[in-house]
Amino acid sequence: MTVGTTGLAAVLLLVSLLLPDRPDLLAPAAFLRLPAEAVLLAALLLVLPGRARRTGAAALGVLIGLVTVVKCLDIGFYSVLFRPFDPVLDWGLLGNAADYLRETSGRSAELAAIAGAVLLTVAVLVLTTGATLRLTTLLARHRARSVRGTLVLGTAWFTCVLFGLHSAGQPVAATLDADILGDRAQQVRASLADARLFRRQAAVDAFAHTPPDRLLTGLRGKDVLFTFVESYGRSAIEDPAMAPQIDAVLKESSAGLAAAGFGARSGWLRSPVTGGGSWLAHATFLSGLWISNQQRFRSLTSSDRTTLTGAFRKTGAWRTVGIVPGVLTAWPEGRFFGLDHVHDGRHLAYRGPDFGWSQVPDQFALETFRRTELARRGRGPLMAEIVLTSSHYPWAPLPRLVDWQDLGDGSVFRPVRRAGRSQEEVWRTPENVRTAYRTSIAYALRCLVQFLRRYGDANTVLVFLGDHQPVPTVTGNSPRKDVPVTIVARDPRVLDRISGWGWTEGLKPAANAPVWPMDGFRDRFLTAYGPRLSGRGMPPARSGTPPGGSHGPDAPRRG
């Protein structure tokens, strides 16, 4: 029993030290390596005197446990956001993950997950500490043999380094935990300094003092709709598993819009996030600042920054509204973004079923906008921020298009919901997930194009874009963060204003179309649709994009 317990303790510590921090590296070969940390810790414990040895063993056991917990968090973050956990900035996202579970699986599932996470964390810390103490006692009891064994293992480790031995693409001589601790130390320093960096970036605002009568003069009298299509990323257009079907939808939609007299131009934007964090991408697009974490978002929304939507309100020439079905609680940020009125998920008069995370099908959200805003008698020009959520993770079950005249209060979607595939069924294989994602994007695009063809006119300008790439299960761990962006209008003068952007004609951006950081769109748009003065160029170039991109479960129910 003692030998078996000691063996289990050794295996536990070995697994903890060799556990990868990325899901794509989780394989048996990852544990067939020699961790330098084990050799160094054994040597350290052998040279310490008795009482200090036991105290040191307990401290090292806790440290190994904490690093193991961090690696588990990394695996989760890489699975959704394709980046590691940030120990300074990401604690709030754990709350968002709990909210997501509650909204998709119920309160019981949320509480069970929280309890399980807490118990697992405590168990890891207790077990790694106990295992370290047990092995330390064994080392002290057989000191001479332990010294020889440590020297042999150290020699073996250096030999593996010298000859560059690898197993399944990974070096046999591992320094995984040491590397993680070093990377985290740098990450913590960068995250702590991020607030100061952001304040300097936010101090530069090319349109802070622009008089209202000189803003958006090229769009006066138009209804301007900024529409975010959840998770509509470059992979939907270029991944071979999805591109043919989405390409067919875009070609069909482009032809239908052209027949209705609409023109379109498309390009690419680089999002600050991938896999999730929609609200950060929305804020980046609207504010002209790189909003890659919650700390930046809070700083932004407590400032007086001129946002793209706020610029419309500032002119006094538009009523500004938001259609945000994902918002189910109070959302004071709506005022910051310059919205006169917010139609949130509680006030869309929807009486149908939800579809996974998405409470309201895109078709119904668009119809609600038409009914409550576009169809109002005697109204003036509108600016709307519209968020379409049907393509939100986990893409199960999915709605489908119904006759617009049959939408009613949404009850028509009940049989659609019952016939849909469950989340458990879809997520059995990556192929099922990609198919469901592709179907959701096709649905969102068709809803938007049908809406524009039915209710758009010569004074309608639609700007629609993805907010971020989907999760790595769909993208195949692609590092690209590009999303499509398109401007559609029937008035040719609207598209003439962006003729110098180099965008592609139609709804599908070419592979070589320009890729701009998402925080650069605000200034380009306000410049293109501002007064045309001889010799006037772009406002001073300033991008808050940090070198190397961004830090980073999706979107919180804002509030």
From TrEMBL:
Region (Disordered): 532-559
Membrane as UniProt keyword: yes
InterPro entries referenced in this protein's UniProt entry, alphabetically: Alkaline_phosphatase_core_sf
Highest taxon, organism lineage: Bacteria
Keywords: Membrane, Transmembrane, Transmembrane helix
TM ranges: 30-48, 60-81, 111-135, 147-165
Protein name: Sulfatase
Organism, as annotated: Streptomyces monashensis
